[in-house]
Amino acid sequence: MIWKRETTIEHLNHIGQNNMMSHLGIELTCLGDDYLEGTMPVDHRTKQPLGLLHGGASVVLAETLGSVAGYLCTEGEQKIVGLEINANHIRSAREGKVRAQKTGPISRQQVYGLLRRLGKKANVSIIPHPHMLRHACGYAL
């Protein structure tokens, strides 16, 4: 288990009342040993004027899961805040709910699998390798 705080989904949703979570209808739906899931409706609160899910609302969902997960990884009076968020809007939505999941640190094999799947989907003839990503952004995987 990666969480250092004991809590329940009910408690996390309760503390999400009267703030951005409740304003956008974000609901935390599952708290596992190493992941947190949540949903957000695609409705009048989260759509842009052309009827699609607003990209900023998607970022709020991601930031909410990241912030709650960060909090759950702290102890005592420790505080955690984010400094930056970056988002790619892969698919659009006009109705229903969108689901997000925040998991623990990802492995080299997970990165490789993700790069392979996205490469195939984009019809990229060269399958990217995590080593390429390391050189491209300066991170060791």
Can you walk through the features of this model?
- This protein has helices spanning 9-15, 20-24, 55-72, 108-121, 130-137, and strands at residues 27-31, 35-41, 97-103.
- It has a three-stranded antiparallel beta sheet.
- Strand 1 (27-31) and strand 2 form a beta hairpin.
- The chain is 37% helix and 13% strand.
- The chain is built from five helices and three strands.
- Give me the strand/helix succession: HHEEHEHH
Shape designation? flat
Strand count, sense and barrel status of the largest sheet are: 3 strands, antiparallel
- Helix fraction, binned, reads 25-40%
Q: Helical stretch count?
A: 5
Low-confidence stretches: none
Structural category: alpha+beta
Task: Quickly describe the structure.
By secondary structure, the protein is an alpha+beta fold.
What labels describe this entry?
141 residues, 3-stranded antiparallel beta sheet, 5 helices, flat
Secondary-structure blueprint of this entry?
Elements: H1 9-15, H2 20-24, E1 27-31, E2 35-41, H3 55-72, E3 97-103, H4 108-121, H5 130-137
Antiparallel strand pairs: 1-2, 2-3
